[in-house]
Design brief:
16 strands; about 425 residues; 7-stranded mixed beta sheet; about 40% helix; alpha/beta
């Protein structure tokens, strides 16, 4: 542990909450160098939807490497890229009647958001972007400007401009879309007509706030009526996390752009893309680039993940069953301990429980870790305990994790009520 304290910047965060040295991982499990095993209910913050070292994806990657498949290719054509693009079209876009071109950006989610914002401004010749309260889109300057969290914003060191913030659905009991529509039609509102709106349909870091289908449909209509592009940030909520491949599917909307990263690579390998409607593809060659926009290893595992998990409805059904099980436990916990909890949050396997405050949620996460499970918190005050296990988790593993959670809650409740008395 000394090497980390000596050499690594104190900007690290997860290791502060989980102070062990992990050495191995398989499926839904992490193992330390001392052989201690932990159930993983963090899953790389949504980057490991298919679990650690998924055997099918690993085999595809090993065979590709063994045959000296290209690793780094900038944006040159490669057989690996063709394999991914064909799989994306066959298993995802065509069945959902979506026509998107694919832009490969730098390897992280914030790179995809930056590219989408840049393209929206280029296409519309406008600079303003509408973002929403409690949204999180990344920590590079443009994405950070659209992010609401003050903890992240204060690290910028520069002004974060060209963003108008609108209340997300349910925020402070304000009809944010009515406000947005009114400001668009009022020449004295002070709102510069935006190039685009940027949103998460389920806000990950913001506390698992869910936009209803009706709200999304209404927002889409406002955007279309005012020639404003709609960008859905599906970096955390996508790739099955909310129950369907895209988080917006049940609403029937078709965003102008979609950003994907995290689990799109399948294996946890860095990869990010922007899906954009063909008429928006106004880029000049090389106008937006990045050295690592061609991770061919990720193309291989991404394509295999789409082929294995999205060729039929079996995986979606598994996610639904898992979500119902987690929801049952959350609702039972709220009923048993109404003084500790507020409500269930999220959708699908992007689900959590809102605690009365961040102290309770922190105690739960800490106790879970002491009992063999890694789980994190989210929300403005980290008040939401966030269940984010791999989507491939087995029923018995899920039961084991939920039992650890319930035991932690009972322990904390006993301690809490002892103090109160």
């Amino acid at each position: 542990m000394n090497i980390f304290k000596k050499q690594e910047s104190q900007v690290r965060s997860y290791s502060n909450n989980f102070p062990v040295v992990f050495q191995k991982a398989k499926g839904s499990w992490l193992e330390t160098e001392n052989g201690e095993r932990y159930l993983d209910f963090l899953a790389g913050a949504g980057s490991l939807n298919y679990g650690h070292n998924n055997p099918v994806l690993k085999q595809a990657l090993l065979e590709y490497i063994e045959n000296d498949g290209i690793t780094h290719g900038l944006d040159m054509h490669s057989s690996a890229k063709a394999t991914f693009l064909n799989a994306l079209s066959r298993y995802i876009l065509e069945p959902r009647n979506l026509e998107y071109k694919v832009q490969f950006t730098g390897p992280t989610g914030t790179n995809a958001v930056e590219a989408a914002l840049k393209l929206a401004r280029k296409v519309t010749n406008r600079t303003n972007i509408v973002a929403f309260t409690n949204g999180f889109h990344g920590c590079t300057a443009g994405a950070l400007a659209a992010t609401g969290n003050q903890h992240h914003r204060q690290g910028a060191g520069v002004s974060l401009n060209n963003i108008t913030r609108i209340p997300f659905e349910g925020y402070a009991d304000i009809d944010g879309l009515n406000l947005f529509e009114t400001m668009l039609s009022d020449n004295s509102s002070g709102l510069d007509k935006p190039a685009a709106v940027l949103l998460e349909t389920v806000q990950g870091e913001g506390g698992l706030n869910v936009a209803s289908n009706e709200w999304l449909q209404r927002l889409s209509k406002i955007c279309k009526a005012n020639d404003i592009l709609m960008i859905v940030d599906d970096i955390q909520a996508g790739c099955g996390r909310t129950g369907t491949f895209f988080s917006f599917e049940s609403s029937g909307i078709k965003p102008d752009m979609v950003t994907l990263s995290k689990s799109i690579g399948g294996y946890g390998l860095p990869m990010a893309v922007v899906l954009l409607k063909p008429e928006l593809d106004e880029w000049k060659p090389g106008e937006h680039n990045g050295t690592f926009r061609g991770n061919n290893h990720a193309f291989i595992t991404a394509a295999k993940a789409l082929e294995i998990y999205w060729a039929n409805a079996n995986f979606e059904n598994h996610i639904k069953q898992s979500s119902n099980k987690v929801s049952d436990v959350i609702l039972r916990t709220i009923k048993r301990h109404p003084k500790l909890f507020v409500q269930q949050k999220g959708r699908g396997m992007m689900i959590g429980i809102e605690c009365k405050d961040g102290i309770i949620s922190s105690d739960i996460a800490k106790t879970c870790f002491e009992n063999g499970m890694v789980i994190e918190t989210a929300g403005p005050d980290d008040e939401v305990v966030k269940f984010f296990c791999p989507l491939t988790i087995t029923e018995s593993e899920l039961d084991q994790g939920l039992a650890i959670f319930e035991d932690a809650v009972d322990s904390i409740a006993a301690k809490h009520f002892k103090k109160a008395s």
